[in-house]
Amino acid sequence: GTAMTSHPSHPKPRILFVDGLWVEKFGIMSLIPHLQRAGWEVDYRLTRNPRRFLNFVASFNPHVLAFSATTGYHTKALQFAALAKEHFPHIKTIMGGPHVTYFPEVAHEPSLNAAFRGECDPFFPQSLSQWLDGHPPEKIFNLVTSSADGSLVQGPLAPLPEDLDALPLPDRQLLYRHRFFKNAPFKAFMVSRGCPYNCAFCFNHKLKEMYRGKGTFVRMRSPESVAREGKDVLQKYGMKLASFEDDLLTGNKQWLEAFATRWKREVGVPYNLNATARDLADPEIVRILKETGVWCVAFGVETGNEQRRKTLLNKPLSNDLIRQAGHNLNRFGVKFMTYNMFALPNESVDEARETLRLNREIGTRLARYTLFEPYPGTQMGDQIAHSHNTEVHFNRKETTEATRKRVERIQKYAMLGMRWKLGEEIAVQASRLPLEPLHDLVFWSTYFNVVRRYMKTGVKHLAELGFRSLTNRI
């Protein structure tokens, strides 16, 4: 034990995780069992409401208040950290998650006492206790902190956990106290870590760089362990659909077949997963998915313009491979969803039409279509900042540029254009008109329907998710 936990007069150290995103966060759920085994008392609460937040902190009275933040949500987490500092100055505040991993300088924020970056689950209790006991910060795994002279102090990254089966299963109990999660028809799973690709709009290349020489980057749990977790969740909470949130589960055909066959035999619940068109161009992979009860497969088209997909997005994938994937999925009767981006740098109306057309060609019925956001730190974010000599921020700037405005409006009608030639014409004509409320209405009604069908869920559950995500009342 450490000085903090070994003394009999010390009560158990307490840590409170607070989050405002109504999704299953595997970072937090993976840390909980490690902390509990190390003698911590853990609580996990969801709210966006400042008053409720302060009530949670007051009633649990933790030694440490922890936030796991993605980029974008980090601003809300920092506001809450500042609020806690104001009302409970004795409580230590820390942040972890993707934002810290890519932007460790967030540890300079006066509302944070420290931050933890990277995959730190097996070492986290030890690092946390060492930090609280005043060990030299530059020696503590994954710790980032701001020194008295204002410089950033970073401890070494812990090696990547190689054997994912050796880790405890993510703890759902605290999150599933919320009726919203417990009764959700779909339950999320993460059964791998790492992605082999280097798309320019993603942070993956940075992560690979950080972890070079620190262990295998792409790791999978064994099919046995995945099935065991599936059975456990099904028995305890029930589920109509399993949603595998991993970057990519189709890269290793042998593993996929073993996993999917066992899942069907032992769990028997339909599932969703992410794939690449390159893998789905192999009919064998599509057959495995079909025979083991897949509900829907999602893969990235990104843009219908092959040249831009390969050069700008660094995604070496041809339109022919995408067509082949579509052909296989349709032939085996497998439902699929495509990921698409609109308003890429200098994208023309014709290029936006190419995206609609390619989706129509492969028979897309479900799609996610977002507006491109250049995150700082990604290859594309850095390129844009460099070429325009501007700073790239974490929120989208309203554009005045006429073509871009039109492409942004076409995005709102994307689902119509992906299904019907007439829908494409409507999208292009509507994009000339500044009728933003109408464009938004079309977007939300079509998009809502996509999510509802992909997640096999009811309108009521989705409406609640929307409400919880947009309001600060709860």
Notes on the protein architecture:
The chain has a 7-stranded mixed β-sheet with strand order 2-1-3-4-5-6-7, sandwiched between helices. Helix 3 (50-60) packs across helix 4, helix 9 (223-237) packs parallel to helix 10 (253-266) and helix 10 packs parallel to helix 12 (283-291). The chain has 21 helices and 15 strands. The protein is globular, with a radius of gyration of 23 Å. It starts with a helix and ends with a helix. The longest helix is centred in the last third of the chain and has 19 residues, at 436-454. The chain is α/β, with parallel strands linked by helices and 474 residues long.
Features:
alpha/beta; single chain; seven-stranded mixed sheet; 474 residues; 44% helix; 15% strand
Brief digest:
Helix content is about 45%, strand content about 15%.
Task: Give the SSE map.
Blueprint: H1 3-6, E1 14-19, H2 26-37, E2 41-46, H3 50-60, E3 64-68, H4 74-87, E4 92-96, H5 98-102, E5 114-116, H6 124-132, E6 143-146, E7 152-154, H7 179-182, E8 186-189, E9 192-193, H8 204-210, E10 219-220, H9 223-237, E11 241-244, H10 253-266, E12 271-274, H11 277-280, H12 283-291, E13 294-302, H13 306-311, H14 319-331, E14 336-342, H15 349-362, E15 366-371, H16 379-388, H17 402-412, H18 414-419, H19 421-430, H20 436-454, H21 459-470
Parallel strand pairs: 1-2, 1-3, 3-4, 4-5, 8-11, 11-12, 12-13, 13-14, 14-15
Antiparallel strand pairs: 5-6, 6-7, 9-10
Helix content: 40-55%
Number of helices: 21
Strand order of the largest sheet: 2-1-3-4-5-6-7
Query: What share of residues are in beta strands?
Result: 5-15%
Average predicted confidence as pLDDT: 92
The count of β-strands is 15
Shape: globular
Low-confidence stretches: 1-9, 394-400
Helix/strand-derived category reads alpha/beta
